[in-house]
Amino acid sequence: MESLNMTNVDEFHLLGITDIQQIQLFFFFIFLLFYIFILIGNTSIVYVVIMDSKLHTPMYFFLGNLSFLDIFYSTVTVPKMLAGLVVEDKVISFQGCITQLYFYHFLGSTEALLLTSMSYDRYVAICNPLHYYVLMGKAVCIQLALGCWLIGFLYSLTQTILISLLPFCNDNKVTHFHCDIKPLLKLACKDTHLHEKLVSIIFALVAVSTFFLILISYIFIGSHLSNIKSTQNRLKAFSTCTSHLTVVCLYIGTAMCTYLGPTTQNSLEKDRLGAILVTVITPALNPLIYTLRNKEVKRALRNGYFNGVSC
Predict the structure, then answer these.
(1) What are phi and psi for residue 263, nearest 5 degrees?
(2) Which of 72, 96, 99, 156 sits CB 3.0–4.6 Å from 105 for a disulfide?
(3) Nearest Cα to 118, choosing from 258, 232, 246?
């Protein structure tokens, strides 16, 4: 309640993706199609992972979690973005802005951590296949997933508290299509250098640690694959990792470029493009990336929608 008394601003105006009215309707239909595909594609994966008993394995458990996160991660920002493309007054309340900021970073950081758990799953599956179902038992998978959600919750809570304690006096125009840390820091009517450093340090602890854990997993995987004499077997083993690597590069790479850089006007413009990539493009591509290269998921989808899923 103290943070609310410190501010004269009770609402923010989101500047959206573009102020060129001639292309706003075009963007609306494009991103609406992407959002529909996100909902259909990721819901389909969650459905078949739950309903098809052959997909009740650690790999698909994490894939189902990833799709579940993608649905809500996009929903935090995309509906508001779509409304902003057809409504002239893009207003969000102060409380709504802080809430959106919290869930955006909660779900986003949880997804990054989940991708880290998925890299460990691939490491165990390739480097220690004989003990895979022992090391990646049901209890272990649930603990890893819950750990991701808990760390994501604490990370986002810390970042949100730091921003909500800032005073906002006059300027309330957010250079973004949703509420995010860097645009809000730019609007605060006090020196925010300390806040920027704290935000960067907290983000770096999560992002850099997840990046290096994923990197270490793939170093071990690469070392193991180099000892496999058969090129065909080597490629077959690595093919199970390519989907995951693609998503990691798109998602974590974009996030690190966004939040580890300085807060400038040019960086804010680039951050909008980065946000579109991680909240619209990547969640829409994830179902394609994982299903196009995965025979089991394609089989389950065909059975689930055309022949009825057998549990």
Answers:
(1) -90, 100
(2) 156
(3) 246
What are the pLDDT digits (tens) for 128-180?
Answer: 888 998 899 999 999 999 999 999 999 999 999 989 888 888 788 888 889 99
**What is the C-alpha separation between 123 and 172, in angstroms, rounded?**
47
**What is the set of domains in the chain, with CATH numbers?**
2-307 (1.20.1070.10)
Residue 13 forms beta bridges with which residues?
91, 173
pTM of this prediction? 0.87
Across the range 64-68, mean pLDDT stands at 93
For residue 158, give every residue at least 6 positions away whose Cβ sits within 8 Å of its Cβ, in sequence order, or none: 202
Dist CA 242 CA 270 (whole Å): 27
Q: What is the 8-class DSSP label of residue 19?
A: -
Helix (H) or strand (E) holding 238, with range, is helix 231-259
